[in-house]
Design goal:
Chain lengths: ~325, ~325
């Protein structure tokens, strides 16, 4: 499996580990750069178990300071240092995170050899605001409705470059030296007098996708505008509908409420997680959510979810298509 | 396996998890009461994996504040509370522990519902001094030689009651009502005029055993007097002899040095652990230690070590003995 954009679940248990489920942590991978989303106890073990590489890690995003989302941080950070990680790392999270992490590092007389920066989200800013960006991705944050200050994150691919129409350029006998100019949409007059208009060999830009991470939160329409139209939504579903009152009391959501969020926000796929330790089996979560939003998946540890979710063609359509297949792959494949 | 006194290894990796080995943690069980020795990340998962019961836990002993010995604490303590543990719990450890744990609990807005006391070891006291005792066990602490303040612990069984000679009392026709007096060594005159001297039906007291826990430490003879004659010694062995210089630099010990400690202190059995993450295989540790102290065992996760170690009779001796076996078990067995 080699997707440019995917999320892998490292932990999906609420409050404490239960039934083999670890507390909250996920790895988001985009163009081979990695981002850690929350860091429950044991996240470093899970990160290694699923063979993610330290050297690809760029940033950590912490939703809130409840222990089941942060107790893996000191071990994760110190093990990185002991493993001779030297690249800079940035952690984004709510107020208090910097003080807490620094206190833990100092009290344990640990050393962090790489440049570590902790950037706290400013609650007085207007939301959503961008906390992180690189060449191809931007991450914005927005407030959720929990018992303590808690943030959701939206990971959005930036607009992509238009596809270069390689076969058409080759067919027209354009020398290869001009390709990089053409990829940038330049207008040219070749030495043989051939005129090429701006963007002549550029096709459509591939679509950009996004991943919304919403945990922990009481279901509310307050944060739905921020995740409107996201490709994939991870939404906490701590309880089944039977425990709606408990969900209200503890500022969590039920599976049906997560599904309602997905439906209202018009996402393609919903992943539900953060399951209460009272549940051994998760089939009720799935059934309840799917009754409202069909394309729901359970956040099972080790599962990877490509973004966008792969479209599965019905078998007959695939077979029909095979006969008049428009070959667009290069000759050498 | 139902031993009154044993230790179970939960983690034996130094500094960071490696090759399936978790960071330091052990459970010591004495008369069904449990004690946690250090609490590396993931200790709560290991504690549950090996099916120890929260309700039997009385105290936690922390050797020092390096992360690989404490990062499991916040998760362990909060999960206990979430699991409706209500009995008091005491943690013993070096200065700074109380502040660190309280900071972590407060910053994460966690709640500890049971009475939790953190007692810091006073370095100006004269060592060894007793930090904990119950009816049958006392625990003393003493300084080790590490880069930061670090303590070893000696778990000693208190002198046991003399064995009541049940069969002899029965043979002599003593009515059962007198047994509890006789167990306490009372002198009696029965109604039929029979005189019983003090301690007449008391045999020898069973021996008392002890467990010494020494991690992390540079090998030195400074702490050997405190563990002299211990039944079982756990001694760190972070390196093989090849890395002696590194052991000196980092204030750790080699397997041979751990063996030397065991030999000099005259213990019955040595358990070595706290293996550096540079080692995938541990056979060199065992070979090097056994070259100096034969009865060495590796601290493998999940292994239980009875205290004292069970004596294995040679097969022939066992067979000879079987013929003139002196039956001392009650009739109903």
């Amino acid at each position: 499996m080699n997707f440019p954009f995917f999320v892998c679940i490292l932990g999906s248990s609420s409050a404490m580990p239960a039934f083999g489920r670890n507390t909250s942590a996920q790895v988001l991978s985009h163009n081979s750069r990695l981002f850690l989303l929350d860091c429950g106890e044991g996240a470093q073990l899970q990160f290694r178990k699923y063979q993610f590489r330290n050297s690809r890690l760029d940033a950590i995003f912490i939703s809130h300071l409840h222990g089941d989302h942060i107790w893996g941080l000191p071990g994760f950070l110190t093990t990185l240092s002991l493993s001779n990680h030297l690249e800079p790392l940035v952690i984004y999270g709510p107020k208090g995170l910097k003080n807490l992490v620094e206190h833990m590092i100092v009290a344990s007389q640990s050393f962090i050899k790489y440049p570590l920066e902790i950037i706290e989200i400013e609650p007085s800013n207007s939301f959503p605001y961008i906390v992180y960006e690189n060449k191809g991705l931007q991450v914005s944050c927005f407030p959720l409705q929990h018992r303590i200050e808690c943030y959701g994150f939206l990971f959005q691919e930036k607009p992509k470059r238009a596809r270069f129409m390689y076969y058409e350029a080759k067919r027209d006998g354009i020398p290869k030296e001009y390709y990089s100019l053409l990829k940038n949409g330049a207008a040219l007059v070749l030495q043989n007098g051939l005129e090429i208009a701006a963007n002549q060999y550029l096709g459509e830009a591939p679509p950009s996708f996004s991943y919304a991470y919403c945990t922990d939160t009481r279901y509310s329409d307050s944060y739905l505008p921020y995740i409107q139209g996201a490709t994939v939504l991870y939404h906490e579903a701590t309880f089944t509908q039977e425990f709606l009152v408990r969900a209200e009391e503890t500022a969590h959501s039920t599976a049906q409420e997560a599904a309602l969020a997905a439906k209202t926000a018009g996402v393609e796929q919903l992943i539900i997680g953060h399951f209460s330790a009272r549940y051994r089996y998760l089939d009720t979560f799935l059934a309840e959510s799917q009754s409202i939003f069909a394309n729901t998946e359970l956040a099972i540890e080790g599962r990877m979810f490509p973004i966008p979710p792969p479209a599965i063609l019905p078998l007959t359509e695939g077979l029909e298509d095979a006969s008049n297949h428009d070959r667009t792959t290069p000759d050498f494949e």
